[in-house]
């Protein structure tokens, strides 16, 4: 077994946990199973994290949020821009069904825990909201617009819809229907955003 720094070993164990949880579900990610996946003694997991809860917290912190590039969308009509943005977003979250399922499993698992676990779940959700909110604000700035709705509420609406579509897609694996719903949402949202356009 290669000698690694404590920090590198922690990263290795987080990655092993993600691999197990993505492939077999979060319940399968026992400390023993994680140690086997990482190829380390059982005690190494306890040494690096102290508890299973601390390891799960590190896994939640490692979840990367989708990057939404809005740099070229201001040249498109609103509906086309939103459709393109949602399509790019969907390509990221929809590229791996099991990884998306892990995010929902993590949120449910952490939300059932104590105050510390629920705070980790809230932080994970805040990072998701933050990524979308940044994209909404950058898009408005590129257009020189003041949005007719609160950008934070708009970001939360987008997440609510995309999460709903994602959960249904995880169950049905119906890519065409998921894409069709997102296109309808883009059309409806464009109607709201274009109804009142004020200069920034």
UniProtKB/TrEMBL annotation:
SUPFAM superfamilies: Homeodomain-like, Tetracyclin repressor-like, C-terminal domain. Residues 7-67 form the HTH tetR-type domain. It comes from the Bacteria. The keyword Transcription applies. InterPro entries: BetI_C (IPR039538), Homeodomain-like_sf (IPR009057), HTH-type_TetR-like_transc_reg (IPR050109), HTH_TetR (IPR001647), Tet_transcr_reg_TetR-rel_C_sf (IPR036271). Keywords: DNA-binding, Repressor, Transcription, Transcription regulation. GO terms for molecular function: DNA-binding transcription factor activity; transcription cis-regulatory region binding. Residues 30-49 bind DNA. It holds the Pfam family TetR_N. This is AcrR family transcriptional regulator. It comes from Flexivirga oryzae.
């Amino acid at each position: 077994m290669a000698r690694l720094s404590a920090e590198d070993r922690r990263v290795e164990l987080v990655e092993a946990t993600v691999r197990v949880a993505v492939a077999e579900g979060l319940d399968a990610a026992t400390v023993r199973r994680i140690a086997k996946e990482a190829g380390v003694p059982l005690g190494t997991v306890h040494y690096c994290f102290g508890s299973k809860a601390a390891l799960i917290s590190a896994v939640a912190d490692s979840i990367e949020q989708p990057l939404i590039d809005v740099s070229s969308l201001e040249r498109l009509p609103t509906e086309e821009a939103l459709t393109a943005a949602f399509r790019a977003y969907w390509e990221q979250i929809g590229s791996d069904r099991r990884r998306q399922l892990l995010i929902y499993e993590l949120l449910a698992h952490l939300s059932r825990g104590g105050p510390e676990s629920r705070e980790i779940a809230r932080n994970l959700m805040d990072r998701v909201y933050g990524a979308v909110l940044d994209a909404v604000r950058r898009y408005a700035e590129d257009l020189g617009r003041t949005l007719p709705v609160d950008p934070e509420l708009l970001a939360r609406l987008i997440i609510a819809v995309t999460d709903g579509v994602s959960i249904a897609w995880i169950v049905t694996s119906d890519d065409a229907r998921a894409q069709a719903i997102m296109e309808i949402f883009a059309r409806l949202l464009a109607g709201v955003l274009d109804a009142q356009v004020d200069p920034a």
